[in-house]
Each structure stands twice: as structure tokens, then as C-alpha cells.
Specification:
By secondary structure, the protein is mostly helical. The protein has 24 helices and 3 strands. The chain folds into 2 domains: about 240 residues, no CATH class; about 260 residues, no CATH class. α22 runs parallel beside α24. The two termini are about 25 Å apart.
């Protein structure tokens, strides 16, 4: 018993030390989780800093291995295993130094920083002063990212040129002639009631000065570097295997994002098989519509017929909100446990919309003071078909990302690492599985909407093919675009942006379909094993009740639940 208590205490202490290291090393992440102790700081993003992170993570893993895992109870053995997996992934990611390629048209600090107001509290004067301190720190922050990119250029770690096209427009959106026009000034447009006029004036002047002296020059420096040095040095090729230690790096990214031991060839074959299966289901739906023509002609019809598109951003948001309200009312039929945290809907900011995806979810804070947000892309409305809204909304909001992530953050018995970290294959696999749940509660009754659902599932199957194809098997960018265009109903703008996202973010796109396939496999196994004792709401409790875990761990959890229900020890 004494040895068990010692192991438990050691693990708890190590988890707490690791968490505190994460908070101090990345104050922006701390704010995101609801820890506001470091709200006046920005991370240090130098090469030396990342080397320090690597040393710290290696040290945590070494100490973890000294703890006698066999002496831990079941819950702490799971904490131990997941902590070990996360540390190993982080260590490998740092060793491959992917951080030296920090910008693309679909992601990076240049896009994330203007979103700072949405994760920052503005309840006190100190909150505003902390925010201003961060604005003042941006010039240094941007300079350090430029330093990382310079080191990447020296070491042959540079992004594909196509992923940088359009970054200049994103940067220019922050370089304004009047600091009050910068989106980072928005918190100063309106203050909480009761602030003295002199205080408001001081804060406004300080914010304008920070934007003029730090934000604008910082973005200008990145823009100058991009145009004069980084773009000329970028790769013509697109494959991850072209990078230093490229094949090992891509294999690591497969493990990182899928939590499985699979080769590019195995994933590619799975993708092709899923594409064939889903294609047959799509053809059956086309028959239901009464359309006379080929698959390609039907796709062209969907992409061009005005009935499937709106002409005003507000219309798209209204249609989306209606779907969300409908699914909110059906959730108790599917789940025993629902999150307390609410969510809202907003358009993707104009500066980020052109090169961005159709939608994305931004989680709420862990302390419950900030709701989750479902961001919808209202740019180029002729690329935002109505028949995709149901599947997209169920994925990004409920019962997809918002429901899963909010429930995870509310699992108070888990260590913070497991409340806020996780495994992409679980998170994205759940969201894709959630799209299909709409079939069970009265969604997709319109055949065009059902085709949109299948097209989204096809999209994720295609990702298995094109991600491995481009990064490991010699596919060209155009080959990937053509493959997606031939097999999905998505518009060419969406397809092109998505393909470029896969180029910039090797391996991430593999998580969705592989995660969904595993969850569906486990549900089918549980249904067959339990027969009339199977309870879907209970199954969902089991799947979501441990947070985002590796897929093999999820399999163990579900198998244990099934065996317990069957009375098997």
C-alpha cells in the first residue's frame, strides 16, 4: 500500500509540474485554458527556447519512467500511459523542428494573434493593461518567428511555395494607417460600465501606441521578410519526404495524428477502399433526386445551380443557426451527459477568410467564462452550398467538436493535461462520426443534404489518399485537386484551399477518417456483442467519458465496458 501511495503521489506531482511548465512556457495557451496568471506575457519563440522545451520534456519522460506503473490504480495507469504517449509525441515533434516553418495561408501566429481578444478576459482595468502589454510584445514575438524561419532556411526546412501564396494579404490586413482600424483595437471600442473617462482615455491611447509601435511594425517586418527572403527560398515541391529526414518525419506525423502504427501505403489503400464504398452510396442518392446524367454532371449541377447558394452572409449564418437549433433539441436522444458550456456562431474574420476552410470550431475556456464559437466562412458565398450545412454544423458544433471538447474540459476528475490536451484521431474522428448521427435523429431527409453528408465523408476518405499521395507517394498538387474534384461535390475554391492545407500540415488530415472508422467499428462490435442490452446513450458516455484518448486505448475502454455488461470478468 505504501508503494502504491508513493507511485500515485509521484505521478500527481509530475503531472502538476508538467502542467505548470506548459503554462509558463506558453502564456497564450494558459489564457486559452482559463489560467490568467500570465496574461501580460507572450511566449519566447527562439531556437534556444525550443531546445529548452525539448530538454524539459525529455526530463519529464525520464522521471515518468522511474515511477512503478504496476503500483498505480486503473485510473492512474491510464493517466500514466496517456502522459507517456503525449510526451513521446511532443519530443519527436521538437526533434524534427517543424516549428521552423511557422506560417502558411491557412495557419500560423500571423493568423492566430489577431484572434487574441476572443480568448482574453476584459473584466478589469488590469485585464486591459495585460492585453496592452501583449500588444507591446508582438514586435519581439514576430522577430523571433522570423529568426526561426531564417534557421529553417539555413537547414533546408522551408515550406512549399504554394502554401505561402496569399500570406501577404493576411499580413497587410494588420498594417493599417490608423491604429483604431486594426482588429486588435476592438476591445477598446466599448468598456464595461463604471470605468472613469480618464481611465478609458489612458487605455485607448496606450493601445493605439502599442499597435503603432509594435503590431504594425511587427507585421511589416514579417511581410518584408516574406517577400524578400522567404518566398524566394520556398520549395517548389510539396512532399514532406523532401524535407530533412523527410520519410521519418512523415511517419512520425502519421503516428502523431492517428495514434496508430500505419504506413503511408496502408493508409492510401484504406482511403481508396472507402472512396469506392462511398461512391456507390452517392450514386444511390443521385438516383433518388431523379437527376438524369452522369456523376460529374450532377456535381457540376450542384456547384452551379443558384438554388443551393445564398447571396448575403447573414443568410448563410441564419440557415446555419437553424440547423444548430434543431440539433440542440435532439441531443438528449443521443446522450446521457451534455456539457454545461454553451456555444455561439460567428463569421470567420475577413482577413483570414479567403484562404481558410468552410468552418472551424474554437473551444471555450476551461473555467467556463468563455463560450465555444463555431466560425463560418462567409467569403465567396458561391463556394458555400446550403446542402453542406447540416453535415458541417454537426461536425464543428454539436454533437461534434463543441459537445466533445466541452464535456472533456468539464471532466473534473481528470488531470489538466487530459482535460485540455488529446489525440487528433479521437477529436476529429468523433466529429466525423457525429455527422452520421444526424441520420438517427431526422436530419438529411433532403437527398441533396444527404449527398452533402456523403460528400463530406468522401472528402475525409479522399484525404487518406491525397495526403499520403502528396507527401509520400509522389502525387502532384494538381493530381490531388483533380482527385478531390472528381469524387466530392465541394467547390473548387474549397478543394484548393484544403489541398494546400494538407501540404502545409502533413499528416493532420489522416486523423478524421481513421478515427471515425475506429469509433464505428467499436460501436458495431458493441451492438453485436450486447444485442438488446446495447444502449446508444450509454455507449456515447463511455466513448466521451475519458476525454480524447489514443484509438487503441479507446478500444480497451469500450471492450472493458462491453465485457462488464456481459458479466465477463
Amino acid at each position: 500500500m505504501e508503494n502504491q501511495m508513493m507511485a500515485t503521489v509521484q505521478l500527481k506531482q509530475l503531472l502538476e509540474e508538467d502542467w505548470e511548465f506548459r503554462m509558463q512556457a506558453n502564456p497564450l495557451y494558459a489564457t486559452y485554458t482559463g489560467d490568467n496568471r500570465y496574461n501580460d506575457r507572450l511566449p519566447s519563440m527562439t531556437e534556444e527556447n525550443f531546445e529548452g522545451w525539448l530538454a524539459a520534456k525529455t526530463g519529464f519522460l525520464k522521471r515518468l519512467r522511474t515511477i512503478n506503473r504496476d503500483k498505480l490504480d486503473h485510473a492512474d495507469r491510464l493517466n500514466y500511459n496517456i502522459f507517456r504517449r503525449l510526451l513521446a509525441i511532443e519530443i519527436n515533434e521538437l526533434k524534427f523542428r517543424f516549428y521552423r516553418m511557422p506560417i502558411s495561408k491557412t495557419g500560423g501566429f500571423h493568423i492566430d494573434f489577431p484572434d487574441l481578444p476572443r480568448s482574453t478576459p476584459f473584466n478589469t482595468i488590469q485585464d486591459y493593461e495585460n492585453y496592452i502589454a501583449r500588444l507591446n510584445g508582438f514586435r519581439r514575438y514576430a522577430s523571433e518567428f522570423i529568426g526561426l524561419m531564417c534557421e529553417g532556411m539555413r537547414q533546408g526546412q522551408v515550406p512549399a511555395r504554394v502554401t505561402l501564396e496569399g500570406v501577404d494579404q493576411i499580413l497587410r490586413a494588420q498594417i493599417v494607417d490608423d491604429p483604431q482600424k486594426n482588429s486588435l483595437y476592438l476591445p477598446f471600442q466599448e468598456f464595461p460600465k463604471g470605468y472613469p473617462e480618464t481611465v478609458e482615455k489612458r487605455l485607448k491611447e496606450a493601445a493605439q501606441a502599442a499597435i503603432s509601435s509594435s503590431i504594425i511594425p511587427g507585421y511589416q517586418a514579417v511581410l518584408d521578410f516574406l517577400q524578400k527572403e522567404y518566398l524566394p527560398a520556398a520549395r517548389e515541391g510539396i512532399a514532406a519526404v523532401e524535407l530533412p529526414e523527410g520519410r521519418a518525419f512523415y511517419q512520425h506525423r502519421i503516428r502523431h495524428f492517428t495514434s496508430l502504427e500505419l504506413t503511408p501505403d496502408e493508409i492510401h489503400a484504406t482511403g481508396q477502399s472507402e472512396v469506392r464504398r462511398i461512391r456507390e452510396e452517392m450514386l444511390a442518392v443521385i438516383q433518388k433526386t431523379g437527376f438524369k446524367g452522369s456523376f460529374r454532371e450532377f456535381i457540376e449541377f450542384l456547384r452551379t445551380d443558384p438554388r443551393f447558394y445564398v447571396t448575403e452572409p447573414a443568410q448563410l449564418l441564419k440557415e446555419t443557426a437553424l440547423v444548430l437549433k434543431r440539433i440542440d433539441g435532439e441531443l438528449p436522444r443521443l446522450f446521457k451527459t451534455l456539457p454545461r458550456l454553451s456555444y455561439g456562431i460567428r463569421p470567420i474574420p475577413d482577413y483570414a477568410a479567403p484562404g481558410n476552410t468552410a468552418a472551424y470550431y474554437f473551444p471555450g475556456s476551461g473555467d467556463g467564462t468563455r463560450a465555444g464559437v463555431y466560425y463560418v466562412n462567409t467569403y465567396d458565398l458561391k463556394s458555400r452550398p446550403l446542402y453542406e450545412i447540416e453535415a458541417l454544423s454537426l461536425h464543428e458544433a454539436v454533437p461534434g467538436h463543441h459537445l466533445q471538447i466541452a464535456i472533456q474540459q468539464e471532466l473534473a476528475d481528470l488531470p489538466n493535461l487530459r482535460r485540455f490536451e488529446g489525440f487528433t484521431a479521437f477529436v476529429e474522428g468523433w466529429a466525423l462520426y457525429a455527422e452520421r448521427l444526424g441520420l438517427e435523429v431526422g436530419f438529411y431527409t433532403d437527398p441533396y443534404s444527404d449527398f452533402g453528408r456523403l460528400s463530406y465523408e468522401m472528402w475525409r476518405a479522399c484525404r487518406l489518399v491525397v495526403d499520403t499521395g502528396m507527401h509520400a507517394l509522389g502525387w502532384t498538387r494538381q493530381q490531388a485537386i483533380d482527385f478531390m474534384a472528381d469524387n466530392t461535390s465541394s467547390t473548387l475554391l474549397n478543394i484548393t484551399n484544403e489541398v494546400d492545407r494538407y501540404i502545409a500540415w502533413p499528416g493532420q488530415a489522416l486523423a478524421y477518417k481513421l478515427g471515425e472508422l475506429k469509433i464505428r467499428e467499436l460501436r458495431n462490435r458493441a451492438e453485436q456483442g450486447l444485442c438488446n442490452r446495447f444502449d446508444l446513450r450509454e455507449f456515447h458516455n463511455v466513448v466521451l467519458g475519458s476525454g480524447a484518448v489514443p484509438l487503441d486505448v479507446l478500444e480497451e475502454i469500450v471492450n472493458t465496458w462491453v465485457n462488464n455488461k456481459k458479466g465477463i470478468a
